[in-house]
Amino acid sequence: MAAKKGRGQPRKSDAPKRKSSSKIIPDAPKRTLRQREVDTIVEVLDEKTVKGEVVFRCVWGDENKPKSWVPEEKVPAELVAKFREEPDSDEDVEYEVAKLLDVKKGKVTKYLVRWTGFNSDHDSWEPAANLPKNKIAAFNKKQKNADSSDEEEKSDDEDREYAVEKIIMRKGVGKRRLYRIRWAGFSDAHNSWEPEENLGGAKKLVREFNKNADEREAKQMEKEYEVEKIVDEKTHYSKPLYCVKWHGYKKNHNTWQDAESLADCQDVLEKWELTKEKRAEKKQEQTAKRDKKKAEERKKREEAKLSKAAENAAKKATTA
Fold it and tell me: Basic residues bias located where (predicted)?
């Protein structure tokens, strides 16, 4: 007999069985007390309204978490009340004068005030009417004493005689001549240039210094400079100039001299010509050596190229 075709849902026994999953979905981890403290607002710093909604700038329990703006409903009511109870302006703060620093007088006399509990960034100029009279009196007395001591020191300096310890050098000529003076009892930082008229108490010292300086300068003028050698040459307006190294002087004293000034130094000029010839020969040798090296390298490259071409041709012949 042919089997009858049934309609409808299959029986439970005929339906495929589902495999039970071995995976267990864990419960959400419970937050520890430390985590709850980190996510807790501990202080309110500021308040503003954004699009009709009140928000507060808050400090979190986690020091690494940045301050942020939080809607009012998420901020503890006691922190909001504490913030709003604190004074918003300086009107409720009492300022106490620590000391007066300076004064400027005009239509209204003002004093520079340092306030108790504040640093110099908060110093301000205030009219005398707003300041305690005892502070003003103490400041004025101190200023008066300071001015009198300054005047005494100034008068002492004016009465004090400065003694010349040593004349170091001089510059200028005639009435414009100045002397570099080291004063007795003072450091080199107080050395000064003085005209001769200011050195009336040291006329003998000035005369001796001028005598020695004149003799020294005369010897310097009489001294003949001896040419040690010529170290370089250049052409200036179609005429040769020679860089001269002077005997007994370092190379920073080298000077350029024309041929006329070296007329008495023919032996030095001849040595220089020989030096130039040697330099030219050496340069020529170096050039020839460099050209030879380049030619050899070029030849090697050509030989390598030909050798590679022959190898390629042999490979093609073998393949064919």
Answer: 1-10
